[in-house]
Specification:
Elements (H helix, E strand, L loop, with lengths): L14 H8 L6 E2 H12 L5 H9 L2 H16 L8 H19 L2 E2 L6 H27 L4 H11 L1 H9 L1 H13 L4 H9 L3 H11 L4 H7 L7 H11 L7 H11 L3 H14 L6 H14 L3 H18 L8 H6 L15 H8 L24 H5 L8 H12 L8 H16 L3 E8 L4 E8 L11 E3 L5 H5 L5 E4 L4 H4 L5 H4 L7 E8 L2 E9 L9 H22 L1
Parallel strand pairs: 1-2
Antiparallel strand pairs: 3-4, 3-8, 4-5, 6-7, 7-8
Length: 550
């Protein structure tokens, strides 16, 4: 008899790889719900209203019923608009067939992985309650369609806990223990955000249109949109008609309350008092034109009601648990799998976790100057004439730049030869791909890994903010702890020790490039003088780009 070898366990990274792996995976319904579902279907006196009520009480069953109904609507090019619509579209015969095909899961009280699967489901029910109430409070007509889309929005988190627990565990560690932004942690560990992966699977599964729209990164409001929303809420008289019209269009979109409800549920599952939660409360208050105190009181009520409707022993939604904490200090590390269970899962059939090793720091040559000179902060240009020449060319309306590349070349020369910054990298913005990639380097070794960097601008990060409006940052010891969690590991793992600067270059309102600069190996610390001159020259480059566009 031949020896059976265990199936190889893949390393998965990137959107397509994960979508291929998860597309055919089954989502089990909890035993009690599936038993009641089959019992209702076997009873001749059961009504569609009873079935609708049961289906709507369980997000996983709702997903299966919606997928089945959506297959029937595919030929008509229409979408399921509510759970009741889905149940009535299918009919009893098809529901009975579906009930026989579904698998079930009874929670193991000793498994944190299974608890987190059911907690993620509870979070989705919480999101659906919040989204539906937002619509109702705004007087919008599509409450049930929004409720369904919001209920299905988080299905990717259910799948991840069941079929990628090692990755989810590492994600939890980075977010809960190290304070890394959730989207950046997902990008680093999965190679994509779970929202983007959910959007891909929603398209493959042909989920309703509103669910797909809500999951799309392209429909997410920018920081400028949210700022305009706030200005409208406070009745800013300087808000122009065009801005007012744009923000009104956003708030009337069906996907907007779906996003808000899920942002709220996924944020408050960690804390109701975090900075991110407080910012979200401000956005919701602007959306509803309510005071923050009154808003939070209502959000708590909706959360408690959602928790009451979905009871699985030991798996109360963390958002509901956190309401009852006596202080704002405690943030439970919910979802960290204990070592014995983690060891068992590591031997299972789940995809292997491959944490990319940080590239070895580039060996820096000894600076030519004496150590005393190296330690002294830079307070003057390396070549003031060269710096002034570059600045004058960039700011002179009569200087004949004909291509953006000429502006960027002048900028790099002024920073390198004029200001004296030793190492520079030009990261070009690829708008169709929403990506940053290194296109040119000065002073960096040819083998330096920064030249291979690819950064997604769809993922919320410091780079995304810099691509939304011209701005610059100096990363030094004073702000590193605060800003590091806002940068992708794909970038920070390629850096050498020391201060560095970043600034975005725009052509009118369109981002063109980001400039990275440091002064290694000569100076590990950058001076305020260097940062001010760096910003001045980069701002001048954006002016020159604007003239080209005109």
């Amino acid at each position: 008899m031949p020896n059976s070898q265990p199936a190889p366990r893949p390393y998965l990274h990137g959107l397509e790889a994960w979508a291929d792996y998860l597309e055919t995976r089954a989502l089990p319904v909890r035993v009690s719900i599936l038993t009641r579902f089959r019992r209702l279907l076997a009873n001749d006196r059961s009504t569609l209203q009873q079935l609708t009520h049961l289906v709507s009480s369980d997000p996983v069953l709702s997903l299966h019923v919606t997928r089945t109904a959506q297959q029937l609507h595919q030929g008509k090019r229409t979408s399921v608009t509510s759970i009741q619509h889905a149940v009535s579209s299918i009919g009893l015969d098809r529901l009975q067939t579906l009930a026989k095909e579904l698998s079930s899961l009874k929670i193991n009280p000793g498994s944190m992985q299974q608890k987190m699967y059911f907690r993620a489901i509870a979070d989705s029910l919480h999101a659906s309650f919040q989204s539906a109430e937002l619509c109702r409070m705004r007087g919008l007509p599509f409450v049930e369609e929004v409720r369904l889309a919001s209920l299905l929005y988080g299905f990717i988190h259910w799948l991840a806990w069941l079929y990628a627990p090692l990755h989810k565990q590492h994600y939890q560690e980075r977010v809960l223990l190290h304070g890394v932004d959730v989207a950046l942690a997902e990008q680093d560990i999965f190679g994509c955000t779970l929202q983007a992966l959910g959007a891909e699977l929603a398209a493959r599964w042909d989920l309703p249109e509103l669910t797909r729209d809500a999951l799309s990164h392209a429909t997410s409001p920018s920081h400028n949109d949210l700022h305009l929303l706030h200005r409208r809420a406070v009745q800013d008289p300087s808000l122009g008609k065009l801005d007012m019209r744009n923000i009104n269009q956003l708030t009337q979109q069906r996907f907007f309350p779906v996003k808000l409800g899920n942002w709220l549920a996924l944020t408050t599952t960690r804390s109701w008092h975090s900075d991110k939660a407080l910012r979200l409360f401000d956005i919701l208050a602007d959306y509803l034109s309510l005071t923050t105190d009154r808003l939070v009181s209502q959000l708590h009520q909706h959360c408690a009601e959602a928790a009451r409707r979905y009871h699985v022993a030991g798996t109360l939604s963390p958002a509901a648990e956190l309401i009852f904490l006596p202080t704002q200090d405690g943030t439970p590390h919910t979802g960290l799998i204990p070592s014995p269970e983690l060891k068992r899962l590591s031997k299972g059939s789940y995809p292997l976790l491959e944490v990319p090793p940080s590239p070895a720091p580039t060996t820096l040559a000894e600076p030519p100057a004496e150590q005393e000179d190296v330690a002294r902060p830079v307070e003057e240009h390396l070549d003031s004439d060269r710096y002034r020449q570059s600045l004058e060319r960039l700011t002179d309306p009569q200087y004949a730049f004909t291509k953006p590349a000429q502006v960027l070349q002048t900028l790099l020369q002024g920073l390198h030869q004029g200001l004296g910054l030793q190492r520079l990298a030009l990261l070009l913005v690829n708008l169709p791909r929403q990506q940053l990639q290194c296109a040119h380097r000065l002073g960096l070794p040819a083998e330096h890994s920064l030249g291979e960097v690819r950064i997604s601008l769809e993922v919320p990060s410091l780079f995304k903010r810099l691509s939304e409006k011209p701005a610059g940052i100096l990363m030094d010891s004073r702000n590193r702890k605060k800003l590091d969690p806002m940068l992708p590991e794909a970038f920070t793992s390629r850096l050498d020790q020391g201060d560095y600067m970043l600034m975005s270059i725009f052509q009118s309102s369109t981002p063109v490039a980001l400039i990275y600069a440091d002064d290694l190996p000569r100076h590990e610390q950058l001076s305020p003088f260097q940062f001010e001159q760096f910003r001045q020259l980069c701002a001048a480059a954006s002016q020159a780009m604007r003239r080209l566009a005109g």
